[in-house]
Structures
1.
Amino acid sequence: MTFYGNCIFTSRLCLKKLAVNDLELLAEWSHALEANGLYLSPENLDIGHLTHQLKSGALWNDKEKRFMVWLKTNTPIGSIRYWTVSGQFNSVIISVKIARESERNKGYGTEAQKFLIKHLMENENIRQVQMYTDINNIPQQRCLAKLGFEMQEAVQYQDQNIMRNGLLFTLSGQTFARHPIYRYHNE
Ligand SMILES: CC(C)(COP(=O)(O)OP(=O)(O)OC[C@H]1O[C@@H](n2cnc3c(N)ncnc32)[C@H](O)[C@@H]1OP(=O)(O)O)[C@@H](O)C(=O)NCCC(=O)NCCS
């Protein structure tokens, strides 16, 4: 993994800081049901609002950052973002979306999350990552198992205007430090 200011490079992906040129696609994906899948509610983002948010720094600051996920072959396939848990400066929540259905089940979701987590733990002084997922979102739960997350509790959480029956998973700094996926797959 290499981190150059605004990009995290992995073996197959580049997680790039969200830029003005990405907003049209981000807005399109935020409306499309197939881009969100069955277990993520469309955010229905408005491009004018997004432009304002990007310019004001609301999408990239000390507490929150949003990346586009690109294949190294230069195709954008999704987005990933994190934000600080309220009142816990070294805990973050991550949300990921591989928006192109044809690119799911190729390991990209796991890879994007893995290297964002490595970056956060190794460079940003983060000590805990939390992920909320719908109770029926088996692909994401499979990713989280591969990434060493532990299920904490069943929760109801707000996803746009829907209350979902979900699960809260966490990864601690201690588990990160000893889990093989982060120690021995360092490409
Ligand atoms: C969840 C998501 C990020 C996973 O990304 P991905 O690139 O497809 O994930 P990966 O290919 O790395 O891993 C998916 C795993 O789920 C497994 N899987 C997929 N569908 C499955 C199913 N119906 N039943 C059981 N396992 C399934 C795959 O086999 C794979 O596991 P494996 O590596 O052990 O074989 C992606 O599906 C997505 O963006 N979905 C829409 C948005 C979303 O739900 N985001 C998460 C919100 S919490």
2.
Amino acid sequence: MNLDNYLKFLFNLNNPIYYAIIFTVLIIFAFYIFQKYILSPKVKKHNIQLKEIELKNAKLMALFSELDPEPLIRIDIKGIIILTNEAAKEIIKTPSLIGLSIKNIIPEINFSIENIIRDNKTKVIFRTFNKKYFSITFKGISFLNIVQLYFTDLTKRRLFEEKLNSSQKQLKELMQHEQLMVEGEKNRIANELHDGIGQNLLFIKASLQRYSNKLKLDLGEETFEQLLSSFDGTITDLKSIIYNLKPSILEELGLGAAITTLCQTFTDKSDIKSNVDIIGFEARIDSKQEITIYRIIQESLNNIIKHSKAKEFTVTMIEENRNIKILISDDGTGFETSNKNYLLPGMGLRSIKERVESYSGTFKIESQLNSGTLLIIDMPKKVVENV
Ligand SMILES: Nc1ncnc2c1ncn2[C@@H]1O[C@H](COP(=O)(O)OP(=O)(O)OP(=O)(O)O)[C@@H](O)[C@H]1O
Ligand SMILES: [Mg+2]
């Protein structure tokens, strides 16, 4: 195309480019008109309505503040008190609160007032005013550039909590005391069995041996030997009863040795293999807590023998700085723990739970049918009283 033809094409009114340009300009113009005369006024009106609602709310809030029976204080962005209600004046016995900095009244404030206004955040502080205990909620309100302080009287609740804590403490002490009484009684019975029946049995055995020649003639050698061995059996049984009542090794050598011996005894009488892992416990811990842990492990092993059909069990005891962790696991049948019904059939697990809770510890059972059982016990170490 030469220049002549090109210019003709360009300035020809039938050229489609002109139509496209005119169409685009028209659309932009129409959009401009829509934006200016329809959309913008609507947005403006909406914003004005929003501001009006917010203002109304603020006014309502202000009115509410005056009437509220709970103390209310309003501060500005610099933390200066600008409004208080009657209830606030009553609890903060300062003649004129308006104009004072809130930090003079509540020095515990450890956050930026500007930030909680900017982010409309809420912060809570607890403190006592005029012998009453309050929670103070700081609520930042950005569009008014203020913080509103709401006071809630928690005195009654606090007293109730203190009472609850003290009765929980008493309950724990009672549980520990009960355990102690039971252990004391076991100790007494063990001593009596040892010094009374035990000594008598030994005396009778010695007499049997002294008169063995005559008795063998009278009874026959075989009957005499049977009599003697059943005597030995009875003495061994009695010793084991006495040991269970009063594990002397615990007193003499401490928890580590006692638990190792206990596990070995269970293996000997059940043929279930035992693994013992004791970390720490080189020094003695509180004697009452030693007995508690011993009884817990003894009861757990009783359950393994009675219920688990396990081939192996493991006892792990870990002594930490302030805590004691005990894990007792077996590879036996396990049992259903999804509901707490397992606490119903007997006394064993319940007594473990009570013993652990009397030391403010936690007791967990993880068990499933055919996948063994794991008991997890965590308890704070008691301050040693017996060293
Ligand atoms: N290691 C375990 N393996 C399988 N089942 C167990 C195990 N330990 C506990 N159980 C189940 O939990 C139940 C509750 O145990 P718990 O020790 O409280 O009572 P118990 O052993 O039946 O009776 P008690 O301890 O009073 O002689 C048991 O009856 C048993 O079904
Ligand atoms: Mg049991």
